[in-house]
């Protein structure tokens, strides 16, 4: 009876209230007749022109897909649009034409055809003529028109990306729905949606102009200092900022992303120096970038000794040659389009002895698709059982995906059992990778101990690029050759908020929990962790005398940019201290990463669409310490089991319906 009453009360708490925010228009009104649109000409790859009306002739409906050849979202849109059109058309003969804007040329057309197997007609919208007529300011943008040139739909292909830097699962296929409505002859339910992507270039650079700010003297050093480690031809970023032409094309977008703290990714604050924090442009540097942009982007004279591009992996300098190089069983093949993939890959060690590691480096095999990774050691016998489970291997794979490893399933709970040694887990997180942060080092005199009969397990976060991609990433281990402090253990653990069970829909609130420090220790690094509802996370140290310091604050937590932040010098904590963890969670429609639309109750759990408060801590403790570092994991495991029971009680564990319209009568704000 007590449990029944509790479940009844909880049912009221997680009731499915619905609200969807207003949709911003990208252009002044769909539904207007614009027959003159078809009189405009676009360019072919061979240099000739063709009227837009000729391309649309004989078709009741045509999708004009505006693209930027170097915009990664545009590249993916080619594949997704073809697939969505096939699902929505029903054999009615809807046309699809790709229009490349701004500086794109015939070579870009050929590159997209070759690299992305683009089968649709690709033409050049010279001087942004068609884009300007239709009010297209962002690529990719889809515009659906009828045979008279009347605009029926204007906006995004789907809602996978609702804000740059924030991705989610696809909850709504906007273009596909619009085509389906138009084919049936019914009004398009949602005729306008906000496109998200790269801005259509409208500025014309004036390299010979003069100004107080010039590229070579003032701008290039800023971009090389803060951006080019990732944004260069061999870097992990999707476009380059390595030369003058690159800067004139992308710096306006870069300024906007820097202003919104989306870039550089993974920004964090601390009262203690952090050795691997992202380099952020100063307000004065941002002022110079804006001034240069406003002045026409003058080039200025090339210096006698131009600066060299920064190395793409500066952290690996000085490591020497690796002692061991590990690879998974085989490569991973990713299909062109679909949701991001989270995949566990096993890197076999096959050793009976313990390894003492001074540094570990993750080397992505395909930088286009490897977004970030988390690395654990885990006992080999358990990994053998998981990889032998065919359902685990198949979990999360889309048609066209193949490779070793296993998916991120709730079934992991039945394999990951905690042993009788209360001081040590049979699996621990020991590092990770994010763009610009590939090397994980131990403090001077300390070593990371990887027990015998364990393997390394890497959670891979893969992006899809719009074409078939293959990844075969490796791990380099650098073993400790010198004297190791025999009185100190290097360990990892995690903090779990045992009070957090669920986040109700249509709410935004802050959570708080505390972690007691049960022995003298040194904090080496912190990896904040939450999922798609987590907006920010702060870890604060409270010493026994009551004084407080911020260990790490992530004012803009993003699930897509997870990493370990290492302190320049380990932070000493006395027994009796506390670490307070506070997270802001947003389960409203205003959160662009919210995996559900309309919002629904999100329970604690390990799946991406679940939520948790689970930061990881790397620390050193006395070797003879009896501190139970498993308690955070055990607390999370127990809460997760309870959450799964409640989900089953309420029938909330079924897959979400992705066909829900973007606006429903009776929607309300929280």
The CATH class of the largest domain is Mainly Beta
CATH topology (fold) name of the largest domain: Jelly Rolls
What is the CA-atom radius of gyration, in angstroms?
27 Å
Q: From the 3D coordinates, which CATH architecture of the largest domain would you assign?
A: Sandwich
Helix content: 10-25%
Q: What's the number of helices?
A: 12
Number of strands: 33
**Global structural class:** alpha+beta
Total number of domains: 4
Strand order within the widest sheet? 5-4-3-7-8
The low-confidence parts are 1-29, 654-670
What is the makeup of the main sheet?
Answer: 5 strands, mixed
Provide a descriptive summary of the structure in words:
With 670 residues, this protein is α+β, with helices and mostly antiparallel strands. The protein folds into four domains: 1-20 and 491-670, Jelly Rolls (Sandwich); 35-199, Glutaredoxin, CATH 3.40.30; 215-312, no CATH class; 313-486, Jelly Rolls (Sandwich), CATH 2.60.120. It is 20% helix and 26% strand. The protein is built from twelve helices and 33 strands. The strands form ten sheets. The chain has a five-stranded mixed β-sheet, covered by helices on one side. Strands 12, 15, 19, 20 and 23 form a five-stranded antiparallel β-sheet that branches. A hairpin with a 5-residue loop joins strand 28 (534-542) and strand 29 (548-554). Helix 7 crosses helix 9. The protein is globular. The two termini are 32 Å apart. Residues 1-29 and 654-670 have low confidence and may be disordered.
